[in-house]
Please model this.
Amino acid sequence: MCHLDARLSFPHRAFRTIHVAGTNGKGSVAAKMAAALQSAGYKTGLYTSPHLLSFRERICIDQQPIPESAVDALLPQIFAETENLGFQFSFFDLMTALAFTYFKKEKVNIAVIETGLGGRLDATNVIEPLLAVITSIGYDHTHLLGNTLQEIAREKEGIVKAGVPLIAGPKAAPFYPYAIAASPSLAPFYDFENQSIANTALKQLQKKIYLPNEAIEKGLPIRPPCRFEVRDDLILDVAHNPAAFEKLVQALEFYYPGQKFPFYMAFSADKDWKRCIEIASSKASQIFFVEGSYPRLVRPEILHAQFPQSEIVPLQGIKKGVVCGSFYIMSPYTQVNSQIAL
Model:
């Protein structure tokens, strides 16, 4: 990625950046920070992953996804440089290069950049940010990041650069004693914790750039779609690891004390789906496994074999209950870039 970055003339150096990593919450914190910066009058880029409907959602300026015309215009140059280099580049590598090139072309003032996985070896880690944020440390992608929380924390710490302040969320702060720690939320709903992290980061950013308190207040309630998104009798949440499922169950108990819900779930093969299902069971009146078309998803028959009291149902047509377990089953219920506020 460093070689490709150089061949593209270091596009990210044309604008200021904020780098956000973490096991859970990083997409929501990034969206809040970008919304606050936009409210302050900055032309603001936002690079996140994964997407729900279209890969263009990953690359936004002032909440608008990159247009197809820009993709068509910029990708050939990027492909040409990758061929000249002769390395194998991933989809995420190419999307990162596209995001940085697009943000430079459109002359954004500042961009909030979410890591894809880990931090130290992540494709986004070529940037030199104004501020680094690590939202949380938990078990996910252990086959790549390590089997202990300390190993995972070290990988995410790779985004920290000399002289760059680090903001750490309540679940991350114990691993980074030198960081500026965000205050834990007294309420169990996880977005309150994300708001605390974003607020701490934005207050620190006020020392470097113009950022009025009014803009921060406008940004904090924003969160991306499918983060405990309530639509009538349907709750959409992209929880996909045990820590996120614990937060989901806490949110359900907070807003719907004593109630149980039908759960509709699917999981990528690399997730600890057994533990996730066990956690969900405390709030589940019934468990359904949905048939998704994404190739990384565990086949519902395998899930059903482990939990025979469950049922297998189509993904479309769910009217009531909690849909969770993966980003890749949200598309029938989602609109592109439909940010929501409490």
Observations:
- Residues 33 and 202 are 7 Å apart (CA to CA).
